[in-house]
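It would be a great kindness if you could assist me with a short task in structural biology. The matter concerns a single protein, recorded as an amino acid sequence and a row of backbone structure tokens. Could you please explain, in whatever detail you think fit, how the structure tokens follow from the sequence? Thank you for your consideration; the sequence and its tokens are set out here:
___
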Amino acid sequence: MCTNLNLKVLFLLVVTGLFFFACSEEPNRDPEKSVNYYALLTGDMTTSPFFGYLTTYTEIPSGSIDNAKSGSLSIQTNGMRGGVRWIFKRTSLATEGKDDLVRYSVDANGKMKEDGRISSGKNSNYCIYNDTLGFYVDSDRGLFKIQKFNPSLMQRTGDIDLSTVKDTKYGYQDVGSCLIVSKEGKLYVDIFSDEKTKKGNFFINKPLGFVELAVVDIASGRYEKTIRYDGISYIGYPGNENQMWTLGDDGALYLCSHGFGATGAINGSAIVRIKKGTTEFDKNWIIKADDYTPGTSFGTVCVKDGKLYTAMSSRALDFKTLLTDASYSYYSFDKENITQRPTKISDIPLTTYPFMCTQAITVIDGKIYFRVVNNMDKNGYYVLENNYTVKQAFNVSSGGVVWGFCQLKVK
């Protein structure tokens, strides 16, 4: 059971943190040719504020590496999300209680630079739809509005009004604070509700036992309907870069319900989905964490070649050791036969919960990579060799704990 003090400390951990970005040197590139970069984020997560490094590589690292390179960029962060061309992140301005949505790109010399910023108020979350359209939350502009922006220009372009979903029986509601995601021309936005309090924070709010998403047509910006899944309490996550969803290679959207709640226990963590060609939850498909380890939490998911990959612990999640308890193993499910027990992926060390890491399981160049953090000699990524075995791709010996790994294609 987690105390109120521990919950407050964890919430502060989510919304504050610092790290430095650093990049490797490279000659000026030909602007007509696309260059692959591999961005690796590491940082200190032992004391606040947090410091770290984002280093670019022109090929996937191997062996034992030092990720603390020259040319680092000082920045506040709690993780990163990689796009095709850019890296995005929300930066907490702790002194003002505000957030910024920030864009980083690779310059002509192969170094990361900040090249765009939008003030996004409080409780920011975001989604990049394409090069000219993205969505984010700014609660200062309205609890029932989703802001639109141009990622290429990093300029706000308007908003989507979802006030029609407001239900006056709740003491508090907002939209998009935990989840904004797109699939097949539709935007899915969480509706966060609390019965009694007037605060939007699931660490103090009572779990309601269901989740609701507003479905929006992206082309017209019109609200279409609300979809609901009973039996789980939370979906997506506010306050850090772990989006807790993936778009599988089957075209379906897979969503993690972490189950965090005010009781200090996990309230039925699960993975659910919305299949390709539909805009409803697949009510005949759910993976429940409690079926395997009561109290464990799903925080990452990847779907490729008929398999669903995730991580589960051998014991219930403890908020006090959330970032340090290396008890999680990676598993593979047959995604269309989920009643069969999953297969534990061998030859991979135990790891910590992927709290702030979007890329705990990530596909790069067609291969699946798994983040492992368990002492400095097991601090890097492992790559899947076949369906169930892996080998170490690289280990970070200096530069801090691994917090992200993604590919960028830059012209």
Remarks:
- The first strand starts at residue 18 and ends at 21.
- The chain has a mean pLDDT of 84.
- Residues 66 and 398 are 5 Å apart (CA to CA).
